[in-house]
Amino acid sequence: MSNIDKGGGGREADTTMRARAAEQTLAHALAHTRERELDCDELLLHVADYLDSGIDDEELEELVEQHLSICPDCREAVEILRRALGRTE
Ligand SMILES: [Zn+2]
Question: How far is the CA of 40 from the centre of ligand 1 (A)?
């Protein structure tokens, strides 16, 4: 059995509904401000570079990190790849 469960945490309690609504409004506005947004397929195209030498395109790298911060599935995929590549940080 393997226990590779590093909690990580970072989940904050929702104190007020208002704060949450405001946050969503802001996220919505930001989403529309950005010209480009990655979906999971696109992200996976860049993951190898991201893990290897880093992405040349600064904006693209930011998009990758942004996607990873909101997409647990891709984060898991990156973790698996990272281990497969023998890169541990
Ligand atoms: Zn994703």
Answer: 4
